[in-house]
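Hey team,

Filing this mostly as a record. A colleague (T.K.) asked me to run one chain through the structure pipeline before their review meeting, and I want the input and output archived in the tracker in case anyone asks later how it was produced. No errors, nothing strange. Just documentation.

Input sequence:
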Amino acid sequence: RRYDAPSVALRMTMLFLPLHALLAQPTTYPALKQRIAVDRLAFATRYASADSVHRVALVDSARNYLFDRITLDILPAWHGTPWDFNGTTRTPGSGTIACGYFVNTVLQDAGFTLPRIKWSQMAAEPITVKLCHRIKRFRDGPVSDVITYIRSQGDGLYKVGLDNHVGFIVARNGVVRFVHSNYYQRAIGVMSEPLDGTTCCSIYATAWWVLCSTMRCRDAHHGASGYCGCRVMSEYRRLHSTI
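Output structure:
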C-alpha cells in the first residue's frame, strides 16, 4: 500500500509529540502507564514555554494523543478481564472488575485525578456530573438516537451511564462501539461491541462526553482541569478554573 505525505494536522501532531512517543510502544501495562505519565510531563513542559499559537496546537495534539492511548492501548488491554460485582482489580487480565471500577480505573490510568474507589461505588449520573462539563441525556428512546447524536459530534470518547451500568462509548471514523465490563457475559467481562447490538443499551442510555473539543473536564482534586494530555498544565487549568 502506498502512503501519501502526512497532512499538515498530522505533521503538527508529530511535531508536538515527545520523541519517545514515536518510538517502540510499551509491551506491558505498567510500562504503558509510565509512558503516558512521561508524555504528559513532556506536553506540560512544551506548553509552559510555547506562545499562544503553539499552545493551541499543543492542546489539539495532546487531545489526539490521549484519545489514541485510551482507545487503542488502555481499553484493549482490559478486554477479557472477567466481571464481578465486587471486582476491583488494578491489573488487566488478573482478577475481576466491576463496571464502575473499570471506567474509573481506565481514566485514572490515563492520568485523570479522581477518587477511584469512592466514584466506582456511586451511581452513574452523580459521577458524571463531577467529571464532565457537558451532559447529554437520552430517555425512553431507541439506541439509534444515541448513535445518531454521537456520529454528529465526530470522533470522541464518551462516558455512558445506564440505569444499573456504566461504560464507555468510542466513536472513531463513524464506527460507534460500547466498551464496558459486562455483567451478562461475566466470564468475558470487559469487551467492545457495536452499540446498536448491545443488550443492556436497549432499555436506557445516557451518554456523557468525557473528551470534548476543548478537553475541559472537571477534576476531583483541582476543581476543573484542562487535561490536554497533561493534568499538570497549571495555566490551562487556571484559565478554566471557573467551569
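Quick notes for T.K.: Residues 108 and 114 are 7 Å apart (CA to CA). The longest strand covers residues 166-172.
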